[in-house]
């Protein structure tokens, strides 16, 4: 189902996307007055871990441990595969934790929070730390002080816990954690002094994290399938085959983590997009010019009145035309004005 060449390409391209996003994030920080914060260092740490996991995937695909599902098991390859899985399941715990903590710390940077939000944010970050360390130690000491039992081929009689069960619960709690982190800023967004369209735009930026959530749900499905299906498969000749669900969880771990890094960095790149593309100013200028021309044409057709009363009517019409232009200008430039205000106030939003 997954070819070794495809796994090699994914193991290289996906981490590089994260590297690109993190590099742009640090570039934006260096070009603005906002200093690099702990949220930036957290996402950088996660990016380094994902690069290491991508390298493991490339090596495993090249040496035959991944991408050969439903082919006869080779003992040496099976042992190397168990070692690779052990390494990845340990590294991923801190990678997932760093990404979630980076997002929570980013919320603290941009929101001037109420006491209630601060308490919720602290509780969620504490739970994330406990969650990551708990599953890290569960994986490290899966077979007590003898992790080599995992790749010896005989874990049933060595007092080892079920690795699949640990991975299943980790995948479930990972999805729940993503939902909690994504939902955290919306009580503040609702209270912002903006219209519904602008609130939806801001919500859409934060909802980019649903890409990682979708990958996490997909990964959960493969882990659950791996847990429920028989662990040993045989062909017609009685040879033991590689499980058909071994490669997918490995791959979608890289997909989810890379998507999480990119989604966590995108909100920080708004100044770069405005500077390089100027899309908001271009659209605002076009809409303002079109509205001005339309209003000018309407005022040209206003009738001429004589006397004081008619002069008052003409003055009222002209005032309405000016107000319409002013409202159009505010409607088209409101987003950029608020963005400039955020930059001047230190990226803080009162909620």
Automatic annotation (TrEMBL):
Span list, region Disordered: 331-351
Compartments reported by the entry: Membrane
Organism in which the protein naturally occurs: Cladonia borealis
Stretches assigned to the Rhodopsin domain: 24-275
Keyword entries, A-Z: Membrane, Transmembrane, Transmembrane helix
Topology within the bilayer: Multi-pass membrane protein
Biased composition (Basic and acidic residues): 340-351
Family assignment from sequence similarity: Belongs to the SAT4 family.
Primary location: membrane
Superkingdom, natural source: Eukaryota
Name the UniProt record assigns to this protein: Rhodopsin domain-containing protein
Annotated TM spans: 6-28, 40-60, 84-107, 119-142, 162-188, 200-222, 250-273
One GO location term (cellular component): membrane
